[in-house]
């Protein structure tokens, strides 16, 4: 080892990245940190984390459906729906982050990887190919309806458990945003004449 400018020995520089690191998980999925500064008991937090991870998986599925339909939309309403689907995707990205952060706040582990999400989600995956616009919109509306029902059920369970933070989040952030998005895309299925006779 070489002497530094102040007489201290320093280790030789090693600018090679350390990769291929292996370690055990520090927290298993489905568990919560037991001893943490939170007023809710570990059993309440674990129950809420389970419900929120289901909502997260379904919201990630909806988010990704918006991007798929953004890429694959076609027809006379292409421009409007192409932009709207991408706007809703961006909004769902924020909602997904909000749910994942709530799970972490409660001491849980958020589901994150696509394969894990696909296994957990209750929203059916669309086919890989392109579908007609009314089918794309119908799929999105069904997914929104499912998530809105989940929000209602979680809010009720959170209220019963005294989990005001989760109750507020699912109603104020997730439910209201899904209601609004559902209304926006649902209007594209209303049959209206373009020209009055």
From TrEMBL:
Segments forming domain Ferritin/DPS: 51-194
Pfam families referenced in this protein's UniProt entry, alphabetically: Ferritin
Alphabetically ordered keywords of this record: DNA-binding
InterPro entries: DPS_DNA-bd (IPR002177), DPS_DNA-bd_CS (IPR023188), Ferritin-like (IPR012347), Ferritin-like_SF (IPR009078), Ferritin_DPS_dom (IPR008331)
Molecular function GO labels: DNA binding; ferric iron binding; oxidoreductase activity, acting on metal ions
Coiled coil ranges: none
Domain of life: Bacteria
Family (UniProt): Belongs to the Dps family.
Protein name: Starvation-inducible DNA-binding protein
């Amino acid at each position: 080892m070489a002497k530094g400018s102040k007489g201290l020995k320093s280790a030789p520089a090693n600018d090679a990245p350390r990769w291929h690191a292996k370690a055990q998980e520090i927290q298993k999925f489905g568990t919560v940190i037991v001893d943490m500064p939170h007023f809710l008991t570990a059993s309440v937090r674990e129950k809420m984390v389970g419900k929120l991870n289901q909502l997260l998986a379904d919201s990630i599925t909806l988010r990704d459906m918006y991007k798929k339909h953004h890429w694959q939309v076609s027809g006379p309403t292409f421009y409007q729906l192409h932009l709207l689907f991408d706007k809703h995707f961006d909004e769902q990205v924020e909602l997904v982050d909000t749910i994942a952060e709530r799970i972490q706040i409660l001491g849980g582990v958020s589901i994150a990887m696509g394969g894990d999400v696909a296994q957990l989600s209750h929203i059916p995956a669309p086919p890989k190919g392109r579908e007609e616009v009314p089918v794309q919109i119908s799929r999105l509306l069904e997914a929104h309806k499912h998530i809105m029902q989940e929000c209602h059920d979680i809010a009720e369970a959170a209220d019963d458990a005294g989990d005001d933070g989760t109750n507020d989040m699912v109603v104020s952030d997730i439910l209201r945003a899904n209601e609004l998005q559902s209304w926006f895309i649902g209007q594209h299925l209303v049959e209206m004449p373009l020209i009055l006779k």
